[in-house]
Amino acid sequence: MQIIRARVLGMCMGVRRAEELARAAAREAARVGQRVYTYGPLIHNPQAVAALEAFGVHVLDTKAIETSTKELPDLKNTVVVIRAHGAPLAALSRLQELGASIVDATCPRVIKSQRLARRYEQQGWQVVLVGDPHHGEIEGILGHTSSAIVVDGPTTALQVAEKLKDVPCALIAQTTIRQEDYDAVIEIFQTHLKTMTVEKTICPATRERQKALVDLCAHVDAVLIVGGKNSENTKRLYTSAIECGMPAWHIETADDLKAEMISFERIGITAGASTPDFIVDEIQKALLTMTER
């Protein structure tokens, strides 16, 4: 069996930066006797989060921060790292009120979307966010506005566009959605709205991984998509592999490998933008070991 990796895969710039900032904060905190937390899971990969936990970086429940429940630890003299997806302004203020020092690891591209949303709203535009309403990035951007609307696909887009036909709208995409999904929403708004503008906020890393996957599919017989089951961009890679007509599996670790996978002569591997390199390496090594049995 031949194993071929996608030419672009794994952690993107924003995720690597967030992980590096968290580890640097943990090293400094250990030196001065502080505890370090992240605002929710730093990235959407359970294994990466577990590795950070072992390094001394603990996860705060974002809902506990909003409601100040008993589950919330004492945050005086602590460090809280804001995850790559960002956080609402109210959460940042609340963390400061509770005595935490903040390290902002928000992806620069997400910060750009937050700023765009605030600017358009200040100028009187209706901000429309295109993406998953339950995703941390979208929740964070919503928390930088007072009246933004979220649409998660063509059906919701049609409902919203029909109501806003006389309102100037600014569309801002979640950085990790597929361009095809964004284009479908844009087309609906263009059909119904008199005035609108579209921001190009999809991260190039998302497009690069999608394109690299399509290229990979032309040279393999099956594909493994590696990444957290809670990672939206990894799920979209899996969907794209299926749309390419490939036998495909979305797996998190080498423990998810199945015997049927080694029946293919050429198997491709790609990974979502939150997937650490060591997991991809472990999976490739385990595949090779399976073929030798």
Please describe what this structure looks like.
The chain is α/β, with parallel strands linked by helices. The protein has three domains: 2-11 and 205-292, 4-hydroxy-3-methylbut-2-enyl diphosphate reductase, catalytic domain (Cobalt-precorrin-4 Transmethylase, domain 1); 13-107, Rossmann fold; 109-198, 4-hydroxy-3-methylbut-2-enyl diphosphate reductase, catalytic domain (Cobalt-precorrin-4 Transmethylase, domain 1), CATH 3.40.1010.20. The protein is built from eleven helices and twelve strands. The chain has helices at 13-32, 46-54, 62-67, 89-97, 108-122, 136-142, 154-163, 179-192, 204-217, 232-243, 277-292, and strands spanning 2-5, 35-39, 57-60, 78-82, 100-104, 126-130, 149-151, 169-173, 196-198, 222-226, 248-251, 266-271. Strands 1-12-10-11 form a four-stranded parallel sheet, with helices on both faces. It has a four-stranded parallel sheet with strand order 3-2-4-5, sandwiched between helices. α5 runs parallel beside α6, α7 (154-163) packs parallel to α8 and α9 (204-217) runs parallel beside α10. It is flat and about 60 Å long.
Which characteristics define this entry?
45% helix; Rossmann fold; Cobalt-precorrin-4 Transmethylase, domain 1; four-stranded parallel β-sheet; 11 helices; alpha/beta; 18% strand; 3 domains; 293 residues; 12 strands
